[in-house]
Amino acid sequence: MKPVNLLLLTTMIISISGLIGIAYAQEESGGGSADGSKLIGAGIAFGVAAGGAGVGLGYVGSAGLAVISENPALQSKVFIFIGMVESIAIYGIVMMFIILGQ
Q1: What DSSP state is assigned to residue 30?
Q2: Domain tally for the chain?
């Protein structure tokens, strides 16, 4: 198993284990659970989108640098592909604000 995959798996296990054993000291008031669910949902939406964009940008960026090194005239096309990958993170931010705005 690659060290990066092991690190991601460990981080996910620690994050999920922190959500399992939640104990409340008092009864919930009106919308406490709904607000917490919105925050968790918004965090997951942005985190997954940013993580996916980061992985995609690694692949597209490395391939783009290889293309530019062989043919510098294709630089503008590489920037278009990089912009398309970055738009995934922007969609995640938009979804985060939509979730928090409800």
Answers
A1: T
A2: 1
Q: What pTM did the predictor assign?
A: 0.61
SS3 content of the chain, % helix, strand, coil (to 5): 85, 0, 15
Residue 88: both structure tokens together: 């995934």
Range of the domain at 76: 38-102
- For residues 73 and 26, the answer to whether their CB atoms sit within 8 Å is no
Residue-wise pLDDT for 16-75, tens only, equals: 666 666 555 555 555 556 778 888 988 998 999 999 999 999 999 999 999 999 999 999
| Domain CATH number, residue 79 | 1.20.20.10
Query: Structure tokens of 37?
Result: 């669910």
